[in-house]
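Changelog note: in this version the structure field was regenerated for every chain. One regenerated record is shown below for reference.
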Amino acid sequence: MTKPRLLKRLVSNFGYKLTALVLATLVWYIVQGEEVLEVNAKLDVRVDVASGFAVRDAGVMSRDITLRGPRVLVGTLQGKSLQAIIRVPSGKSGNLRYRLDKEFIPGWDNRVRLTIHDPYVNVAVEERLTKKIPVRPVVVGDVPPPLMIDEAKPSPAEIEITGAKSEVSHVTELLTDPIDVNGLKDSKSVTSTLAHTNLPDVELSAREVTVALRVGPKKESKTLSVVPVAIIDTDKVGSVRPAGVTVIVSAPDDVIKHISHKDIHVTVTAKDLAPGRYNLGVLATSPEGVIIQDISPKTVAVEIYNQKKLK
Protein backbone atom coordinates (compact mmCIF):
# COMPACT_ATOMS: atom_id res chain seq x y z
CA MET A 1 0.00 0.00 0.00
CA THR A 2 2.91 2.36 0.73
CA LYS A 3 4.40 2.33 -2.79
CA PRO A 4 1.18 3.18 -4.66
CA ARG A 5 0.57 6.11 -2.25
CA LEU A 6 4.15 7.40 -2.75
CA LEU A 7 3.84 7.12 -6.53
CA LYS A 8 0.47 8.87 -6.42
CA ARG A 9 1.97 11.77 -4.47
CA LEU A 10 4.85 12.09 -6.99
CA VAL A 11 2.59 12.27 -10.04
CA SER A 12 -0.13 14.38 -8.47
CA ASN A 13 -0.07 17.97 -9.71
CA PHE A 14 2.74 16.94 -12.07
CA GLY A 15 2.31 20.00 -14.29
CA TYR A 16 2.80 22.39 -11.36
CA LYS A 17 5.85 20.49 -10.17
CA LEU A 18 7.41 20.49 -13.65
CA THR A 19 6.78 24.21 -14.01
CA ALA A 20 8.43 24.84 -10.62
CA LEU A 21 11.49 22.83 -11.68
CA VAL A 22 11.83 24.77 -14.94
CA LEU A 23 11.48 28.10 -13.12
CA ALA A 24 14.10 27.07 -10.52
CA THR A 25 16.51 26.05 -13.27
CA LEU A 26 15.94 29.32 -15.10
CA VAL A 27 16.55 31.35 -11.95
CA TRP A 28 19.76 29.40 -11.26
CA TYR A 29 20.97 30.03 -14.82
CA ILE A 30 20.23 33.77 -14.54
CA VAL A 31 22.04 33.99 -11.20
CA GLN A 32 25.03 32.10 -12.58
CA GLY A 33 25.07 34.28 -15.69
CA GLU A 34 25.03 37.52 -13.67
CA GLU A 35 27.73 36.42 -11.22
CA VAL A 36 31.09 37.87 -12.35
CA LEU A 37 34.12 35.62 -12.15
CA GLU A 38 37.80 36.42 -12.72
CA VAL A 39 40.27 33.67 -13.62
CA ASN A 40 43.84 33.33 -14.92
CA ALA A 41 44.71 31.40 -18.07
CA LYS A 42 47.34 31.07 -20.82
CA LEU A 43 47.27 32.47 -24.34
CA ASP A 44 49.36 30.56 -26.90
CA VAL A 45 50.39 32.60 -29.93
CA ARG A 46 50.58 31.09 -33.43
CA VAL A 47 52.02 32.97 -36.39
CA ASP A 48 50.75 32.18 -39.90
CA VAL A 49 52.87 33.44 -42.80
CA ALA A 50 52.42 33.33 -46.56
CA SER A 51 53.87 30.57 -48.73
CA GLY A 52 57.60 31.06 -49.27
CA PHE A 53 58.16 32.67 -45.86
CA ALA A 54 59.01 31.36 -42.38
CA VAL A 55 59.29 32.67 -38.83
CA ARG A 56 62.76 32.82 -37.28
CA ASP A 57 63.06 31.60 -33.67
CA ALA A 58 59.56 30.18 -34.03
CA GLY A 59 59.40 28.60 -30.60
CA VAL A 60 56.17 28.42 -28.61
CA MET A 61 55.05 31.89 -27.56
CA SER A 62 52.57 32.29 -24.74
CA ARG A 63 51.25 35.05 -22.53
CA ASP A 64 49.58 35.11 -19.13
CA ILE A 65 46.03 36.45 -19.35
CA THR A 66 43.19 37.35 -16.99
CA LEU A 67 39.57 36.72 -17.96
CA ARG A 68 36.64 38.50 -16.31
CA GLY A 69 32.99 37.87 -17.10
CA PRO A 70 29.89 35.77 -16.33
CA ARG A 71 30.63 32.56 -14.49
CA VAL A 72 28.93 30.40 -17.14
CA LEU A 73 31.36 31.73 -19.76
CA VAL A 74 34.56 32.12 -17.75
CA GLY A 75 34.38 29.24 -15.26
CA THR A 76 35.37 26.56 -17.75
CA LEU A 77 38.43 28.52 -18.96
CA GLN A 78 40.35 28.62 -15.68
CA GLY A 79 43.88 27.21 -16.08
CA LYS A 80 43.32 26.40 -19.74
CA SER A 81 45.19 27.65 -22.83
CA LEU A 82 43.54 29.76 -25.49
CA GLN A 83 45.09 30.43 -28.90
CA ALA A 84 45.73 33.72 -30.69
CA ILE A 85 46.57 33.67 -34.40
CA ILE A 86 48.70 36.38 -36.00
CA ARG A 87 48.29 36.32 -39.77
CA VAL A 88 51.16 38.11 -41.51
CA PRO A 89 50.09 39.60 -44.87
CA SER A 90 51.65 38.11 -48.00
CA GLY A 91 54.98 39.65 -48.94
CA LYS A 92 55.53 41.28 -45.55
CA SER A 93 58.82 40.35 -43.87
CA GLY A 94 61.44 41.62 -41.44
CA ASN A 95 61.14 42.36 -37.73
CA LEU A 96 57.44 42.92 -37.04
CA ARG A 97 55.72 43.98 -33.83
CA TYR A 98 52.12 43.20 -32.93
CA ARG A 99 49.91 44.11 -29.97
CA LEU A 100 47.75 41.16 -28.99
CA ASP A 101 44.05 41.73 -28.46
CA LYS A 102 40.81 39.76 -28.57
CA GLU A 103 40.70 40.31 -32.36
CA PHE A 104 43.43 37.68 -32.71
CA ILE A 105 41.39 35.03 -30.88
CA PRO A 106 38.88 33.22 -33.14
CA GLY A 107 35.29 33.09 -31.89
CA TRP A 108 35.86 35.45 -28.98
CA ASP A 109 32.77 36.30 -26.88
CA ASN A 110 32.76 40.07 -26.22
CA ARG A 111 30.95 39.53 -22.92
CA VAL A 112 34.29 38.37 -21.49
CA ARG A 113 36.82 41.05 -20.61
CA LEU A 114 40.40 40.14 -21.60
CA THR A 115 43.61 41.43 -20.00
CA ILE A 116 46.87 40.29 -21.65
CA HIS A 117 49.96 40.72 -19.51
CA ASP A 118 52.84 41.85 -21.77
CA PRO A 119 50.66 42.04 -24.91
CA TYR A 120 53.41 42.93 -27.41
CA VAL A 121 54.91 40.21 -29.63
CA ASN A 122 57.99 40.54 -31.86
CA VAL A 123 57.99 38.36 -34.96
CA ALA A 124 60.94 37.91 -37.37
CA VAL A 125 59.70 36.84 -40.82
CA GLU A 126 62.20 35.70 -43.46
CA GLU A 127 62.31 33.90 -46.76
CA ARG A 128 61.76 30.15 -46.47
CA LEU A 129 64.72 27.96 -47.47
CA THR A 130 64.96 24.21 -48.03
CA LYS A 131 68.28 22.38 -48.43
CA LYS A 132 69.79 18.96 -47.94
CA ILE A 133 72.12 18.48 -44.98
CA PRO A 134 74.52 15.53 -44.50
CA VAL A 135 73.93 13.24 -41.52
CA ARG A 136 76.84 12.26 -39.27
CA PRO A 137 76.41 9.30 -36.91
CA VAL A 138 77.80 9.83 -33.40
CA VAL A 139 79.44 6.59 -32.30
CA VAL A 140 80.56 6.11 -28.67
CA GLY A 141 82.28 3.21 -26.94
CA ASP A 142 84.94 0.71 -28.02
CA VAL A 143 84.73 -2.58 -29.88
CA PRO A 144 86.92 -5.46 -28.63
CA PRO A 145 90.49 -5.54 -30.06
CA PRO A 146 91.76 -6.26 -32.63
CA LEU A 147 88.54 -4.96 -34.24
CA MET A 148 87.43 -1.46 -35.14
CA ILE A 149 84.38 0.31 -36.59
CA ASP A 150 85.23 0.43 -40.27
CA GLU A 151 82.22 2.50 -41.20
CA ALA A 152 79.10 4.06 -39.76
CA LYS A 153 76.94 4.78 -42.80
CA PRO A 154 73.60 6.58 -42.35
CA SER A 155 70.59 6.01 -44.59
CA PRO A 156 69.44 8.44 -45.80
CA ALA A 157 72.84 10.11 -45.98
CA GLU A 158 71.21 13.55 -46.34
CA ILE A 159 68.00 15.00 -44.96
CA GLU A 160 66.07 18.03 -46.15
CA ILE A 161 65.54 20.80 -43.64
CA THR A 162 63.18 23.75 -44.12
CA GLY A 163 62.90 26.97 -42.19
CA ALA A 164 63.91 30.61 -41.99
CA LYS A 165 66.77 31.32 -44.42
CA SER A 166 69.23 32.66 -41.82
CA GLU A 167 68.73 29.61 -39.59
CA VAL A 168 68.86 26.97 -42.33
CA SER A 169 71.99 28.52 -43.88
CA HIS A 170 73.97 27.98 -40.67
CA VAL A 171 73.16 24.28 -40.35
CA THR A 172 76.01 22.29 -41.90
CA GLU A 173 75.41 18.78 -40.53
CA LEU A 174 72.84 16.78 -38.59
CA LEU A 175 74.04 14.56 -35.76
CA THR A 176 72.41 11.40 -34.49
CA ASP A 177 71.87 10.62 -30.85
CA PRO A 178 74.91 8.72 -29.46
CA ILE A 179 75.14 5.11 -30.73
CA ASP A 180 76.78 2.80 -28.18
CA VAL A 181 79.09 0.20 -29.81
CA ASN A 182 80.66 -1.17 -26.61
CA GLY A 183 81.35 -4.89 -27.04
CA LEU A 184 80.14 -4.97 -30.66
CA LYS A 185 81.80 -7.86 -32.55
CA ASP A 186 79.71 -8.13 -35.72
CA SER A 187 78.39 -5.65 -38.26
CA LYS A 188 74.77 -4.60 -37.78
CA SER A 189 72.26 -1.84 -38.52
CA VAL A 190 70.61 0.31 -35.87
CA THR A 191 67.92 2.98 -35.96
CA SER A 192 68.87 6.29 -34.42
CA THR A 193 66.98 9.53 -33.82
CA LEU A 194 68.45 12.83 -34.96
CA ALA A 195 69.75 14.94 -32.10
CA HIS A 196 67.97 18.28 -31.59
CA THR A 197 70.67 19.87 -29.42
CA ASN A 198 71.60 23.31 -30.82
CA LEU A 199 69.30 22.70 -33.79
CA PRO A 200 67.05 25.69 -34.63
CA ASP A 201 63.32 25.35 -35.08
CA VAL A 202 63.31 23.80 -38.56
CA GLU A 203 61.21 21.17 -40.32
CA LEU A 204 62.94 17.84 -41.04
CA SER A 205 61.99 15.51 -43.88
CA ALA A 206 62.87 12.59 -41.54
CA ARG A 207 63.56 12.32 -37.82
CA GLU A 208 65.23 8.90 -37.80
CA VAL A 209 68.00 7.29 -39.82
CA THR A 210 69.27 3.74 -40.15
CA VAL A 211 72.99 3.49 -39.43
CA ALA A 212 74.93 0.54 -40.86
CA LEU A 213 77.83 -0.26 -38.52
CA ARG A 214 80.57 -2.24 -40.23
CA VAL A 215 83.09 -4.01 -38.01
CA GLY A 216 86.45 -5.12 -39.39
CA PRO A 217 90.09 -5.73 -38.49
CA LYS A 218 91.93 -2.77 -37.04
CA LYS A 219 93.58 -0.62 -39.71
CA GLU A 220 96.38 1.90 -39.87
CA SER A 221 95.58 5.59 -40.09
CA LYS A 222 97.09 8.37 -42.18
CA THR A 223 96.61 12.14 -41.96
CA LEU A 224 96.41 14.06 -45.23
CA SER A 225 96.77 17.81 -44.82
CA VAL A 226 95.43 20.53 -47.14
CA VAL A 227 93.22 18.32 -49.30
CA PRO A 228 91.62 20.78 -51.79
CA VAL A 229 87.88 21.48 -51.54
CA ALA A 230 85.84 21.64 -54.77
CA ILE A 231 82.46 23.36 -55.23
CA ILE A 232 79.93 21.19 -57.08
CA ASP A 233 76.30 21.35 -58.27
CA THR A 234 76.49 24.93 -59.54
CA ASP A 235 77.35 26.66 -62.80
CA LYS A 236 78.60 29.75 -60.96
CA VAL A 237 82.15 30.65 -59.96
CA GLY A 238 82.96 30.39 -56.27
CA SER A 239 85.74 30.39 -53.70
CA VAL A 240 86.37 28.38 -50.53
CA ARG A 241 88.13 29.34 -47.28
CA PRO A 242 90.09 27.46 -46.18
CA ALA A 243 90.84 26.10 -49.63
CA GLY A 244 91.99 22.76 -48.15
CA VAL A 245 91.04 20.58 -45.19
CA THR A 246 92.73 17.84 -43.17
CA VAL A 247 91.41 14.33 -43.76
CA ILE A 248 92.25 11.28 -41.62
CA VAL A 249 91.85 7.96 -43.43
CA SER A 250 92.37 4.35 -42.41
CA ALA A 251 93.09 1.21 -44.45
CA PRO A 252 95.06 -2.06 -44.27
CA ASP A 253 98.87 -1.71 -44.14
CA ASP A 254 99.41 -2.67 -47.76
CA VAL A 255 96.87 -0.05 -48.92
CA ILE A 256 97.42 2.91 -46.60
CA LYS A 257 101.01 3.53 -47.71
CA HIS A 258 99.86 4.16 -51.29
CA ILE A 259 97.06 6.61 -50.39
CA SER A 260 97.74 10.25 -51.28
CA HIS A 261 95.87 13.55 -51.69
CA LYS A 262 94.76 12.72 -55.24
CA ASP A 263 92.84 9.67 -53.99
CA ILE A 264 90.62 11.72 -51.65
CA HIS A 265 87.92 14.00 -53.08
CA VAL A 266 86.49 16.69 -50.82
CA THR A 267 83.46 18.70 -52.00
CA VAL A 268 80.78 21.15 -50.93
CA THR A 269 77.45 21.33 -52.75
CA ALA A 270 76.14 24.74 -53.82
CA LYS A 271 72.93 23.44 -55.38
CA ASP A 272 70.21 26.12 -55.69
CA LEU A 273 72.36 28.69 -53.87
CA ALA A 274 72.18 32.30 -55.07
CA PRO A 275 75.29 34.51 -55.10
CA GLY A 276 76.36 35.21 -51.54
CA ARG A 277 78.35 33.84 -48.62
CA TYR A 278 77.56 30.56 -46.90
CA ASN A 279 78.97 28.15 -44.33
CA LEU A 280 78.72 24.70 -45.88
CA GLY A 281 79.51 21.19 -44.67
CA VAL A 282 82.22 19.26 -46.51
CA LEU A 283 81.89 15.71 -47.83
CA ALA A 284 84.81 13.40 -48.61
CA THR A 285 84.95 10.27 -50.76
CA SER A 286 87.74 7.68 -50.92
CA PRO A 287 88.63 4.51 -52.85
CA GLU A 288 87.00 1.23 -51.84
CA GLY A 289 88.54 -0.19 -48.69
CA VAL A 290 89.72 3.23 -47.46
CA ILE A 291 87.73 4.69 -44.58
CA ILE A 292 87.28 8.41 -43.93
CA GLN A 293 87.75 8.72 -40.17
CA ASP A 294 87.65 12.48 -39.72
CA ILE A 295 87.57 15.80 -41.58
CA SER A 296 88.82 19.07 -40.09
CA PRO A 297 87.30 21.58 -40.33
CA LYS A 298 83.92 20.06 -41.08
CA THR A 299 82.55 23.34 -42.47
CA VAL A 300 84.10 25.93 -44.76
CA ALA A 301 83.20 29.47 -45.82
CA VAL A 302 81.98 29.50 -49.42
CA GLU A 303 81.34 32.59 -51.56
CA ILE A 304 79.30 32.19 -54.72
CA TYR A 305 79.81 34.92 -57.33
CA ASN A 306 77.36 36.22 -59.89
CA GLN A 307 79.52 34.88 -62.68
CA LYS A 308 79.19 31.65 -64.64
CA LYS A 309 82.00 29.14 -65.09
CA LEU A 310 83.77 29.02 -68.45
CA LYS A 311 82.79 25.97 -70.46
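Spot check on this record: The two ends are 112 Å apart (CA to CA). The chain is about 15% helix and 50% strand.
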